[in-house]
Amino acid sequence: MTTTKTVAPLSKLLNSGATALVVVDMQNDFCAPGGYIDKVMGKDVSAAATICDNLTALVGAARSAGVPVVWIGSDYSPGRIPAAMQRKLDQRGITAVCCKPGTWGAQWFCVNPAENESIVIKHAYSGFSNTSLHAVLQEKNIDTLVFAGVQTQVCVESTVREAHSLGYVAAVVKDAVASHTPSLHEASLMNMQFLFGELCDTADVVAQWSLR
Fold first, then answer.
1. Residue 122 catalytic?
2. Catalytic (active site) residue 155
3. Which of 10, 30, 77, 151 is most solvent-facing, going by the fewest CB within 10 Å?
4. Given a cut of 80, is residue 60 above it in pLDDT?
5. How far is residue 115's CA from residue 107's CA, in Å, rounded to a whole number?
6. Number of other CB atoms surrounding residue 93 within 10 Å
7. 170: number of Cβ within 10 Å
8. What does pTM read for this prediction?
């Protein structure tokens, strides 16, 4: 006789006390007019501004509920990024540095970490790649991650994939992630829902955290 294992609904996991909000790459170079994605890559960054209200609501609800907020930022300076990333830049003839430390481009866009919140700086697309992110989450006894930020199909999905491989439950807030390429944003959401995580809305997450 085959028995079906009961799977806890996402709403229960969000209220388990083992959840963290992970904000990915909300920096000027990725999100703001005049930043790297806009000026160097020639991509439309307007979608990033459309998620600011939802991000603000998520961060506020997490703080009120005692849910840890973990911030992932980038520093893609030469010599710090993987050789494969550098190769792609060289193929395009790009010498500008994305999110160079100490510059306006590396500063946060529309939302900011609080003094006591963890900040993890990455040098590759995944927030787990050669960073302290896994250790930070384990120290906080986290097993469920709620993702927001940019770019959906690059750093968000790369981090979600690795979170899945490490055993975390990944929930992607579909109205709090954005991309410079709408078609890839939609495809990435479908792909993450299919294999690597679950999709949810800002309102649903905020409502669950308000019950804590």
1. yes
2. yes
3. 77
4. yes
5. 15
6. 6
7. 22
8. 0.95
